[in-house]
Design a protein that fits this description.
2 domains; about 30% helix; globular; binds iron/sulfur cluster; alpha+beta; 16 strands; about 375 residues; eight-stranded mixed sheet
Amino acid sequence: MTFAESFVVDVDGLDALVQVLIQRGYETKGPTVHDGAVVPGPITGVREFPRGVRDEQAPGRYRLGKGDERLFAWAVGPGSWKADFFPANQVEWRAHTSEGALSFAEVGTASTPLAIIGARPCELAAIEVFDRVLGEGAHPDPRYVTRRDTCFMVVVECAVPAGTCFCSSMGTGPDVKSGFDIALSELSDADGHRFLARAGSSHGADVLAAIPHALASELDLRARLESLEHAEASMGRHLETEGLAELLARNIEHPRWSDVAERCLSCANCTMVCPTCFCSDVLDISELSGALERRRVWSSCFDLDHSYLHGGAVRSSTSSRYRQWMTHKLSTWWDQFDTSGCVGCGRCVTWCPVSIDITEEVEAIVRTDGAARVTVPTSRSDS
Ligand code: SF4
Ligand code: SF4
């Protein structure tokens, strides 16, 4: 089996893939339906995948409906895989104090390796963004690195994007080229319901060899390309990225920041659902028993306290917080990590309670590039 070859696997073969990964000691997770949404969850077989489910997504709107026989005819839901590598609430260290002596307890990493079956291409791209934030640099997070290095990744290419998706603008989908162990494309046509499978690593080739498979035909390969072309053509949104980082940098006092602040609730939903947002806070907990604990918890640049420096918040106005969020994603992330901080998943658009759409906000600034400047309030005194 070579990485260039494609194979056909049927639905039973996909179930066998899950079983092989379980037998090899992985904690297997994939998309599941929970509380009316497609979210990551434990998977023990094909029966847990969202078979026959469609989604409808628009700014501020998400609904599940009835689909066809396919298992992956939906786009990303509110939960992303970042929680599996960067938990929302994680113990950093534990200690105990007794009679003046302080002792620290070891905080371990999850010992069971994770297998993700059914991440979408934009979600893999988001994890790769996270790799630069937590896995590289002068101080990589060892727990992140261990979790990531031992992860087995099965990506399913997108056939049915949502109305809020724009991964093709960001170069992160609907197809996947690298970074996976196995890539699948779900096909459902006159030739039947099946998956086209490619190995992207020796681990992936080994697992693929262990499940029932057949060499893909020219017709199968063409069906995959047609499915991807259709997905790209039906992408709900578009973002022009050429020159965008520079455009935002020269419009930091554009009147649109005040306009969006009139609508934005500063609720932080967009940052919680975003698969690349990585702001965190530190909580120190001490109990009368002498037990001490430090926790890292998700935070948001929309929280007033997040920019608190001695005497007050640096970004006290909603306009300054929205501007920080959007310009970091699309402009200064390039300076910091040499990549975009947005993968075009559309979650922030779907899950904004007042339907603020990042692509629309960018477009408004593009249309009026260099518009009359306004001062965006930042410090307490000018808010
Ligand atoms: S843009 Fe929307 S989701 Fe984000 S903080 Fe504002 S109101 Fe909340
Ligand atoms: S900014 Fe919005 S569209 Fe971009 S990755 Fe985050 S949630 Fe997805």
